[in-house]
Amino acid sequence: MRAITRRDLLTAEPDGRHHISSAVVLALPEHCKAVCERLADMPGVEVHAFEKSRIVITIEGRTSGMLGATLTAISVMDGVLAANMVFEHAEDQEARS
Asked: What is the 3-state secondary structure (H, E, C) of 1-24?
């Protein structure tokens, strides 16, 4: 297995691994349902739960950079106060088959 380099992370080149992250999104309470609907429509994003202003999601993608880009896009959505990654895991694509 090849080591991931800083260049891989910065250029977001696919590394033959599948990346998954959990995150918590904090939304304005009056916008929470609308934010959940927008999140559910995003590719690679799954909404698992929400209560009051907190939304628990997972993000999947081919690179760590893709996860970061998705999280950044979420953090600038209308009604979103913050989006924080909680955990990230990567595994070889072959292991998923």
From this structure: CCCCCHHHHHHCCCCCEEEEEEEE
Q: Could you report the per-residue pLDDT of 7-57, keeping only the tens digit for each?
A: 655 555 556 788 999 999 999 999 999 999 999 999 999 999 999 999 999
Q: Are 12 and 64 in contact (CB under 8 A)?
A: yes
Indicate the domain borders of the chain: 7-91
Q: How far is CA 92 from the centre of its chain?
A: 18
Tokens of 64: 């760590």
CA distances from 81 to 13, 70, 86 (A): 30, 15, 16
With tokens 């959990």, the residue in question is 22
Topology of the domain comprising 7-91: Alpha-Beta Plaits (3.30.70)
Please tell me the distance from the alpha carbon of residue 1 to that of residue 32, in angstroms, as a whole number: 42
